[in-house]
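TL;DR need structure tokens for one chain.
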Amino acid sequence: MKLKNLLTVLLLAAFTIVSCSKGKHEEFGRDLAKAFKSKKYKDFDTAAYNAVFKAQFVKLRKDLHDEKWINQIYTEEDKGLTLLGAFLVSGKLDTLSLFLSNSKFHGLKTSFFHADSISKILNIVKTKKFKKVEDSYPYLAKLELYSADGLINYANILKYGAVNPKTVLSTYYVSVKRPAILDAKKALDQLNLAQFLNEIQPKNGYYQRLMNILINDGKDGANPLTEEEKQKVYLSMERLRWPVEEYKGKYLLVNIPEFQLRLIEDNKTNLQMKVCVGEAGGHETPILSGMVNHMQVNPVWNIPQSIANKEILTSLVKDASYLESHDMVAYKGGQLVESHDINWSAVQPDEYSFKQNPGADNSLGQIKFLFHNPYAIYLHDTPAQAKFKEDMRAVSHGCIRVEKPMKLAQFLLDNEKETDRIIKETDAAARGEEAVARWVNIKNPVPVFISYYTAFTDDEGNLITSKDVYGYDKLLLNKFEKYMAN
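>> reply
TL;DR here they are.
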């Protein structure tokens, strides 16, 4: 069930509570008069207010961001005091107002949630001495409508993000989940606005550290964030609001723009290393997640057909000994063939397939790490170590080359005996001894998240910014700008 539907049910439950409580609306005026020390509120007339509410509803439609949802809630009779009746006198609408005003620390535009309007109207309702009670009705109606619209949009954005990632990036491969209807029904047991607002705050530690950077921006003599830094923070927070499996326990996190892999355990970075990712312009590493459950020592490289057609065949036309010099072999129909017997300039694309034998010079290096995904993406070693010295490391065909593969194996296996065996096998292959491919299962599979954040933090909360290597920030900005803090 979408959060909008959840809130619809929550508010409908509030309507029921208000409507079924005998004399609730009749007592509303007396409660206001007592709470705000304004005698005119004692003359409050529910029927007269409802007529004004309907008129204000029509007048304010253009200001509401989800008119259809609001219309679903407020078309029934006697519903114009739903939030006011439950939360105005208790001060919980002030709590809502505070949360909406602080949406800027989520990188969000406060005006999108009517924060200033709600704050001003609350002040008027609580302090203005109306000459007649009818003068208060338009303010109360606006407060009800703005609060409802602000609440539903604020909650929905914090829970799922302002923008659906699928509309920004067709290659966004993380599923967008919604809570089950049973979970929503459990939430109906008690409607507690303050508790609800606290519960929907993003719990992700990276998100909270970025939020803390915004809260403390320019304080204690620190240099304020530049506009570019703010924008990167806002966009990264939006991405962190998109539904993903929670970052917790032991996991790997690849941040594409940063060209970094973090090995994290118990919210601490166990190890950090450089990575090379897919080249922009057609070989971008996709955003996805999975469970690393096995690795191959001294791997065989089953060369993708796209690489075979574009690169291997071209090289063979120029040099018939190319396969032999790169320890590769060719197959046709699953049968091994002799490279020198073939006129490579006359073959058709996809007619032959190729493999590179295990060894120190294998393009996958001496170990690769696999997790289930439909895009054949994995992490692997590489003999091209010089690339890790370069700043721009978007150079691969899409898979992720890791700087310290043995450290990664040690982290994943957490088994000293198996790690030592792997080191011996790879050392022997590096000396030119026979290399035999061997699969190793990871007893406790480890989650891996391949993500895209141009603003990130270290464990101490210091801001790290990166270039928008794939141009994804620009794509997101086009959709997100109307929600984004100034």
